[in-house]
Every structure is written in C-alpha cells, then in structure tokens.
Amino acid sequence: MSSLNVRMMSLLLMFPPLLLGAPMPAFECPEQISPSSVQVSGMGSEWTSFVASPLYLHAAAPMYGPPVMKGDLADFTETRGHDVWSYTYQLDGAFPDGKWLQCTYGDRNQVTLSRRLPDETRECKFTYRKGTKAGQHAIKIQCQ
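-> structure tokens emitted (144 positions)
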C-alpha cells in the first residue's frame, strides 16, 4: 500500500462522516411568530390592525410538495407516552415536487411556515411535548 493510500485511510478513520456522506442538517421550527411579523392588508384604509400576542408553534410534519399543494402525508407511525408523543414518517418513494417541512402556528394552525427538505431525506420523526402556553407544543425534529 502506498504512503498516499495509508494517509487517506488514516484520514477516513479519523473522520468517519466522510465515509457516510454529509450529515443531514438539523431542522427546527421557530417557537413562535412575533406580533410584529403578522401583517393584515387589503382591509381598506378605515381599518387599523393590531396583533396582541405571538402565535405559538402548534404542529409540524413533512408534506408532499410546496405549501400551496396542501400535500399532507397521512401515513405515519404514532407513539404515545405520558408527557411525550411522536410521529414517524417514512419518506421513501417519488416526490417529484419535493419533500417539505411545515410548521403550523396558533391553536387551529392558522399560519404555516414551510421550507424544502433535502431530496435525500428518507425518514423524519417529530417528538412533541406540551408547551407553557395554550395550544403550544415543543417539537423536536429528527430527519435522516
């Protein structure tokens, strides 16, 4: 084995992620949408809007395609505990319009923020805990 090959093997053993490819980025929904971020328009000049409180994170899930497609995924595995519950989605198969993450806010999911997930994402697990505000959830997202 040449000294170059030995050095390359040494580097790969020191940095195993190089063997596996780049790690998946971590995904996190913002905890809230601040009142100053919410704007009401198109109501006419006689109306003045006021948003009294933030909208808190309520739910998160992967979806098929961009938000306008409303591609909610119905196939998931649910696990329930006393204070924590989770949903695991398998994201294999064809997603010609992309895999997306949606984060919804307000106790009735009134506002949605979405971003595209890497095409190589194969599974996402969403672990929920109750938040401190009404309708709020703390959500941990793990994708691979």
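The radius of gyration is 21 Å.
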